[in-house]
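User: Could you check the structure of this?
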Amino acid sequence: MKKIKLLSLIILCAISFANSQTFKFVTTIESVVSAGAGRSRMIVSEDDGTVSELELENLFSLVGIKFKNIKTNDSIITKKLSQMEQKGYKLVFVAPSVYGSKNETGIFLTRYIFRKD
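Assistant: Sure, the predicted structure tokens are below.
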């Protein structure tokens, strides 16, 4: 009986803790399509429940990888992550993902998960 009461108390505390938190997602999609034909974006879940979309630079141009665009994207992403921290959100998890095909096209997708107590 004591074990059941203790387990019930632990579950109640966990539910209470989870309900007092807010989660937000920032997702970056960086295109790896030759000739700069891809579309790269940052998708942000806003505090009011809406979703905004910011343009990022494509990683490739007609002549190959474009390092200036990588630098620009890093700057945009860093700025957004800093803004989230200033709003009181804490970065709790980063989920990177890569999708590609044999014809040298694909995307880098990174999902940043934030929590605010």
